[in-house]
Amino acid sequence: MSSSIADPGIALAALCAVMVVLATVVYRVAHLDNLFAVPAAAVRGAGQLAIVSLVLAAALTHLWSSILVLLVMFAAAVATCARRARAGWSGVWLAVSLASGVGAVVPLMLLSGVVPLDGYALVPVAGIVLGGAMTATTLGTRRALDSIETRWGEVEAGLSIGLSARDAHMEVARSAAQDALLPGLDQTRTVGLVTLPGAFVGVLLATGSAVQAGAVQILVLVGLLLAQTCAVAVTLELVARNTVRRVRPQT
């Protein structure tokens, strides 16, 4: 198989420019948002990817630098979770949630030999797992904290009948936090029928083997399920114990 896709060059740049212009026109006609939202996002995304591509090209050649890249990604994921959940400095504890998710999956993949211990395999796979754990952690934290705020009367009722603060919080937060797992479950249930996720498409384009692409994709999806489940479970415990809490705006 000799064909390739998205080779860097004038054709790619021109196509991207046309799509940005078309999206901007739709924004203008439909009065969706700031007219420059799409061009600004496209320029920022292209710049970030250019920098990341250069960094990864150098970093992936050594295991130690690949691990350093993953640590930077992990720190960025923790900061994103804390910011999205409006948890302030208490959001630093969400590092435990992310570490539980990634720590439950990546070592298993490495010890089994399915994923080789080199940067070119470790960074993409661990990055996908970390990204999935980040999404689930963010959603779980936001919804659990929102639920406690909006259903505070039920929390107080639980406290009045002798429940501990942890158990009273858990009663109202658990069902809300569980919603964070639905996207991953739905993606796994519908893979191949509704969507062809990125790992499948990437391996298919790189190797031309649909069988190998399917094997990589199911590995990623099952790993994501484990990572997200662990991350949400730990997140729920942190919120229930008031370790991670919502920052109150200053008045």
From TrEMBL:
InterPro entries xref list: UPF0014_fam
Q: Where does the UniProt annotation locate this protein? A: Membrane
Q: Where are the transmembrane segments?
A: 12-30, 50-79, 91-115, 121-141, 191-212, 218-240
Cellular component annotations (GO), alphabetically ordered: plasma membrane
User: Which ranges of the sequence are coiled-coil?
Assistant: none
What is the topology of this protein in the membrane according to its UniProt annotation?
Multi-pass membrane protein
Pfam families with a match to the protein in the record: UPF0014
Entry keyword Zinc-finger: no
Keywords recorded for this protein, A-Z: Membrane, Transmembrane, Transmembrane helix
Concerning PANTHER family, the annotation shows: PROTEIN ALUMINUM SENSITIVE 3, UPF0014 INNER MEMBRANE PROTEIN YBBM-RELATED
Q: Which family does it belong to?
A: Belongs to the UPF0014 family.
- Its name, as the record gives it, is ABC transporter permease
